[in-house]
Write a structure and sequence with these properties.
Blueprint (H helix, E strand, L loop, with lengths): L1 H4 L6 H16 L10 H19 L9 H8 L6 H18 L3 H7 L15 H9 L3 H8 L2 H18 L1
Helix pairs in contact: 2-3, 3-4, 5-9
Protein name: Endonuclease-reverse transcriptase
GO molecular function: endonuclease activity
Keywords: Endonuclease, Hydrolase, Nuclease
């Protein structure tokens, strides 16, 4: 696929659509369940920028910053991480509205002793971080589908503006 994605005879918009179709669809498989930490977010951003650089045939030796690369290809910001967070929030709302095994597992507590060291980042912690609300507020809002969709849209728009 590298010859197709780097071919200059094909417009960048078409190559971008091909990338989203063939690469992103495989990469985003089950991303709703990922627990995102800072290093994973950096790796996701790096993957997206690597793809853009390959498609635009921009060498690492040119020492262009990511913002310059995005401006050159006509994008304002990266999209992959935003897509992952959107899918996670939509999945959370889906789980909250239905009685299922996933809901029981998500709300359940594990019996036993607490592990040593710092508590690991949790999936529900990602939801809190993305929505900037406490998890109990998210639970109430997620029960109303329309309000939850507005929450998702407003939070991701704010995140895009911060970048």
């Amino acid at each position: 696929m590298s010859k197709l994605l780097t071919n200059r005879r094909i417009s960048f918009a078409t190559r971008s659509r091909l990338t989203k179709c063939y690469v992103w669809s495989i990469f985003l498989y089950a991303c709703e369940t990922w627990t995102l930490n800072a290093s994973l977010e950096r790796n996701i951003e790096a993957l997206e920028m690597w793809l853009y650089r390959r498609m635009a045939r921009i060498s690492w030796k040119e020492k262009k910053k990511n913002k310059e690369v995005l401006e050159e290809i006509g994008l304002k910001h990266t999209e992959l991480l935003k897509t992952i967070k959107t899918r996670q929030l939509a999945y959370y709302g889906h789980i909250r509205r239905h009685q299922s095994l996933q809901k029981s597992i998500m709300e359940g507590k594990i019996n036993g002793k607490k592990q040593r060291g710092r508590k690991r980042k949790s999936w529900l912690g990602n939801i809190e971080e993305t929505t900037t609300r406490r998890i109990n507020e998210c639970c109430e809002v997620a029960l109303n589908r329309e309000e939850w969709r507005r929450t998702i849209a407003s939070n991701l728009w704010q995140e895009t503006e911060q970048r």
